[in-house]
Write a structure and sequence with these properties.
Elements: H1 2-24, H2 27-57
Helix pairs in contact: 1-2
């Protein structure tokens, strides 16, 4: 559950940069959004792996 909480926090933290990029055209904010999306992808994969391991160990 800890990783899921980190995922939610990361998504919330990138919201301001996404707004700056899409509404103000700030390209530096776009770079920060791209980095955060990559971090989200890695974290989501870690969560998937953890869930699979927990599910399979219950059998």
């Amino acid at each position: 559950m800890e990783k899921f909480t980190k995922l939610k926090e990361l998504l919330a933290s990138v919201e301001a940069d996404a707004d700056k990029f899409y509404n103000s055209g700030n390209s530096a904010a776009g770079t920060r959004v791209r980095k955060a999306m990559q971090d989200l992808k890695v974290l989501a994969q870690d969560i998937r792996t953890e869930v699979t391991e927990k599910k399979n160990s219950a059998k």
